Amino acid sequence: MKFSTFVLSILGAATCVSAQNTNATTKTAELLEGLQKAPTRLARLNVLKDNKDWLFDFTSGLGTTKNAGGNITAANVANFPALFANGLAMTIAQMEPCGMNTPHTHPRATEILYLVNGEMEAGFIEENGARFVHNTLTKGQGTLFPQGSIHYQINTGCDPVLFVAALNDEDPGTSQIAQRFFGLPPDVTQATLGDVGLQEVTKLAIGIPDNMAIGVDKCLKKCGLTRGSQTMKQQQPRDADNALPGTK
Ligand SMILES: *[C@@H]1O[C@H](CO)[C@@H](O)[C@H](O)[C@H]1NC(C)=O
Ligand SMILES: *[C@@H]1O[C@H](CO)[C@@H](O)[C@H](O)[C@H]1NC(C)=O
After folding, report:
1. For residue 58, how far is its CA from the centre of ligand 1 (angstroms)?
2. Residue from 111, 194, 116, 185 nearest 151 by CA
3. Ligand 2 atom showing the smallest separation from residue 66 Cα
4. What are φ and ψ of residue 180, in 5° steps?
5. What is the pTM of this model?
6. pLDDT in tens, 33-74
7. Is 84 helix (H, G, I), strand (E, B) or coil?
8. What CA–CA distance (Å, rounded) separates 196 from 219?
9. Which residue did the predictor score with more confidence, 27 or 12?
10. Is ligand 1 within 6 A of the CB of residue 18?
11. Are the CB atoms for 74 and 181 separated by under 8 Å?
């Protein structure tokens, strides 16, 4: 007991001193290392010594992905170590008019979402055999996306909206369906889709917009918007094993 307390106080002191001359990435790594070695709740509190270790600023840009359809900020154990061993994470998103959080899954978490303003369409599909579930939410309403379900949200209004979502795992993970599926070997994708050519698969694979993307045509029409150009950087990296035709 005494020995572990000693070790922990050394560890805590080291974290504290070195944190002054390192950047946020290094500090996060150090905190996580300390938390992993801390056997108890109280020991973990000693690792998270600074009150600021318990603060996450959703406006700082940390954890934020910003694209044509809006920005999404995810606080999880990788960027907010205080979540360690607490079993939850949070995502805040500002969606532009007609912005869409493209279909994705969280492999390790169920998500509950609260819409702060405006209106939103939200839908999900669970495992094989499950029906499609969807709702239109208005300000003050919420919905749930079961763990592992493929789900999406669309701002169906012509003003920006804000949503807040909690996930019941500190490391929920996100898997964007289109990017992941079209990141498989093109001949596998082609065979899965039926009789489409490899060229079509390639064309689709390289044209998938980054999340958050611009949403559905009927919203764009309603709001008098055009789709415009979108970045396409979230594609699955390719090597010889999943190379697109002609690039091997
Ligand atoms: C922070 O430190 C890490 C590890 O030393 C380094 O990889 C990263 O580039 C640094 N970031 C900044 C913003 O200096
Ligand atoms: C997200 O977008 C909104 C609206 O454009 C903006 O006010 C906010 O600062 C952005 N958040 C981040 C973290 O970039």
Report:
1. 20
2. 111
3. 14
4. -70, -45
5. 0.86
6. 999 999 999 999 999 999 999 999 999 999 999 999 999 999
7. coil
8. 29
9. 27
10. no
11. no
